[in-house]
Amino acid sequence: MPTTEQEHRVYVSFQCRDGWHCQFLEPELQTPLPRRLHFKSADKVRELIQRGNGLVDSDAQAMVNQGIEMGRGGIFLESHRGTVPKTKAIVGSNFRARILSLSVPQ
């Protein structure tokens, strides 16, 4: 299992309100990261979570689907040293920087 030095986590909170709004938080769930994303479809929220390694098993996928059905939810996104999330734009090796530069086509 990776140590905290090798693993970077952020929490993504999503809510349906005139589209899907996504906000990123530090792992302690108190400090928001400056980047927010807005999507027209729930499929783009699923894609964001998948690219951020959030769908680690069938339970995580079920939780995301339930959150989307309810119109709100959240999940941790993870990056392990040596793996690269499938984001469109990646800068450096810092996962938070990758999240801040994340771009999923609308």
How does this model look, in words?
There is one protein chain. This protein is α+β, with helices and mostly antiparallel strands. It has one domain. It is 27% helix and 31% strand. It is built from three helices and four strands, in the order E-E-E-H-H-E-H. It has helices spanning 42-51, 58-70, 95-100, and strands at 7-16, 20-25, 32-39, 72-80. A four-stranded antiparallel beta sheet has the order 3-2-1-4. It is globular, with a radius of gyration of 13 Å. The N and C termini lie far apart (35 Å). Mean pLDDT is 78; it is low at 1-6 and 82-93.
List its traits.
106 residues, alpha+beta, four-stranded antiparallel β-sheet, 3 helices, 4 strands, globular
